Amino acid sequence: MFKLTEDQAKATLKAAGLPVPEGFVCVSAAEAAAAAERLGGGAVVKALIPTGRRGKAGAVKLVATPAAAASAAASLIGTEALGHRIERVYVEARFPIARELYLSFLLEGMPPKVVLSTAGGVDIEETHRDRPGAIIQGDVDPLTGFTADQARTLWGRAGVTGPEIAGLAEVSAALWRAFRATDAVLMEINPLALDASGRPSVVGAMIAIDENGLPRHPEWAEQADGSLIAAWRGFNEREKRIAEVNRQFKGGAIRYTELDGDIGLFVGGGGAGLLQHDMILAEGGRPANHTDMNPGDGTGEKNKAVYLAVLDNPNTNCLLIGFNYLQLAQCEQKVKPLLAALKERGVDPRDFPIVLRVLGPGEEAARAMVKDVPGITYLAPDSSLDDGVRLICEINRAIVQRKQPAAR
Amino acid sequence: MSILIDQGTRVLVQGVTGSQGRRDTKHCLDYETRVVCGVTPGKGGEEVHGLPVYNSVAEATAVHAVDCSLLFVPPLATKDAVLESLAAGIKLVVALAEFVPRHDTAIIAAAAREARAIVVGCNTNGLISPGKCKVGGIGGDRPYDCYVPGRIGVVSRSGGMSAELARVLKFAGLGVTTSVSMGGDVIPGTPMVEYVKMFVADPETDGIVVFGEPGTRAEHDVAAFLRAGGCPKPLVALLAGEFQERYPKGVSFGHVAAMIESDTDTVSAKRRMLADSGALVAHSLGDIPRLMQGALKK
Q1: Contact, A205 vs A44, CB < 8 A?
Q2: Count of C-beta atoms within a 10 Å radius of residue A307
Q3: How many distinct structural domains can be found in chain A?
Q4: Using one digit for the tens of pLDDT, what is the confidence trace for A145-186?
């Protein structure tokens, strides 16, 4: 999942025919002044950063003149807000707001949910806490979508009574269609504003996109890369290298995330990786990284890239290569790139012990490849994932103990 | 007996002419699965492994009686292919593709429910009733390495873990009635609890093993079903991914569904909920046969 920036979200909704205030992306004070001029003088100047709550952080400024727009932009660009560096601002027309509503769609399971409220313009979490009755929730049938009829019913329950409900319902149903068409998993329109005549406008828009939908939206492909971890703490050098290999070879991807422990992991598939990681913690060990392997094209290169990353991580003492019993993939695919990576970095497994629990097709060939390499333990055909975890934790404990006296 | 598939199940393969379709169909035929025909638009009239290929599911079902459709179809084409099988009246659809857009999976789940059909997947390697039938890549070309006949029903959110679970049951002298890889997506075609209900109803299944992960409400539904007294058979649950709770919400380490989204979707919360509902909670693979055998002796 990754978030669109405000300009992207609004451009998308505008293209879908929704009423969106006019706005321009600006990278300098001069551009902001020109944009305000085109909007008739007055404008809203907002920091273009992928996060909400910008108003509270002072990253949204109302201005009455192009000169004021310029100084607002100058005061924002180059600074930081909410952990993001502001490089661009969005200069948008001021909509004459008479009433602020809230509407969101969420696709986190079945059925999809719609949440709406007449208490817009503030944090929905606060409304939920202080006035839970002001929030109306509904289920959406994916086969019919959110219809104008259903929207009328729900807005009526939320307390919208006047003639404005017709236009509001139409816009709400169109927003669902855009939610579906953009492969969004979360869309929050806050505020969904009405002017004095009841005309709606999408004044606040936050959209998060499902990565699986990206092939239908190639224009967003770049910014989706590893956005979750990037948003958490930014990629390090080795993680960037893995992202690069993923870009090089399409059709599948590998995830490599460094953590604060000392046991290197090359584990998969998804479920078996999670299980081994949990069991290492239960044994008192701490992984130096996590992996999730679904390599697709370029399997050998991707596997080798992960091995190199593990070997280059200075905190790693040893390596567990643990996979669920392979049903179609070949065991050699895991072992060959390991040997290549060890050779390339000149690492001797006697100094960097490796445990393999890789069973299934191609196992004999894989065993033969490492048979005479001291420091590599290839677990027996009847071993379980539990055994690999126990052994690597034992090996790591011995290494940690050996290191301790030297540190004293 | 077993659930969903047995020796009598007649299978149609959508996307049979592709390389994965050809290979895995061969493995299914080698296992004596009754594959009766294939479908690939534009390739009607061809043959794969001696099976006739048709241009559409409707064309194929006009000639063959079909119980199950197996899809080797790319992610963006999966929704329409599933709907095509459901429209032809097929009540069991196995959709293998990973990376199907979530909106498509929502439509698939809703359509399956409306058609009163079971959709296994998306993002699965299929299901197997050992010794009788396998549908999908599950077990590869060496299914007996892991899957042997027995009396335990398995439903797993991870296809790979399905093999490990079956293997640990095999080594313990247990074995499997049916193992279903239900798929690792946020929105599966059929929810986990529906498979548990089928295992409860199956007279040859004595115990049930479920493998769960962080994210989704799959395990909550199972717990609610247990609390309501729906499951007189022992149910052992192995849940993986507790370590994710050490990291910020939304950071994903595995399956797309395995993202921690809310405090009640975490593995530790689910474990507590399942344990409180009468499930036996395993913490390692070795725990599974131990807990199961202990419960079956009673």
Answers
A1: no
A2: 25
A3: 3
A4: 999 999 999 999 999 999 999 999 999 999 999 999 999 999
pLDDT digits over B156-187, tens only? 999 999 999 999 999 999 999 999 999 999 99
What residues make up the domain containing A63? 22-92
User: Does residue B4 fall inside a structural domain?
Assistant: no
- Residue B220, in any domain of the structure: yes
Q: What is the pLDDT of residue B260?
A: 46
User: What is the tally of structural domains in chain B?
Assistant: 1
**A65, A92, A119 - which closes a domain:** A92
For residues A71 and A130, membership in a common domain is answered with no
Amino acid at B127: L
| Domain identity same for A378 and A248 | yes
Nearest to B247 by CA among A232, A89, A300, A148: A232
Q: What is the pLDDT of residue A362?
A: 93
Does residue A164 sit in the same domain as residue A67?
no
One domain for residues A231 and A380: yes
Q: What is the domain-level CATH number for residue B134?
A: 3.40.50.261
| Domain closes at, from A219, A252, A273 | A219
Mutation test of the interface with chain B: which of A254, A274, A334, A384, choosing the one with the most B Cβ atoms within 10 A? A274
Q: Could A278 and B252 be called an inter-chain contact, meaning their C-beta atoms sit closer than 8 Å? A: no
Q: What is the CATH number of the domain that holds A124?
A: 3.30.470.20
* Domain shared by A121 and A188, yes or no: yes
Q: What is the pLDDT of residue A225?
A: 57
Q: Under an 8 A CB cutoff, do A277 and B253 touch?
A: yes
> Please, what is the average pLDDT of chain A?
92
Residue B154 lies in a domain: yes
Site from B243, B264, B270, B271 to mutate, A interface, most A CB atoms within 10 angstroms: B243
DSSP line for B194-255: HHHHHHHH-TT--EEEEEE-SSSSHHHHHHHHHHTT---S-EEEEE--GGGGGS-TT--SSS
Cross-chain CB nearest to B167 (options A229, A290, A325): A325
d(CA A362, CA A42): 70
pLDDT, tens digit (0-9, with 9 covering 90-100), for A369-388: 999 999 999 999 999 999 99
- B-chain residues within 8 Å CB-CB of A215? 75-76
B226-266 residue pLDDT tens:
999 999 999 999 999 999 888 876 565 654 455 445 677 88
Q: Do A327 and B125 touch (CB under 8 A)?
A: yes
More confident residue, A219 or B43: B43
Residues of chain B with C-beta less than 8 angstroms from the C-beta of A109: 186-187, 216-217
Mean pLDDT of chain B: 94
Region A309-325 average pLDDT:
97
- Tokens 């007189």, located at residue: B232
User: Does residue A57 fall inside a structural domain?
Assistant: yes
Q: Is there a contact between A45 and A28 (Cβ–Cβ < 8 Å)?
A: no
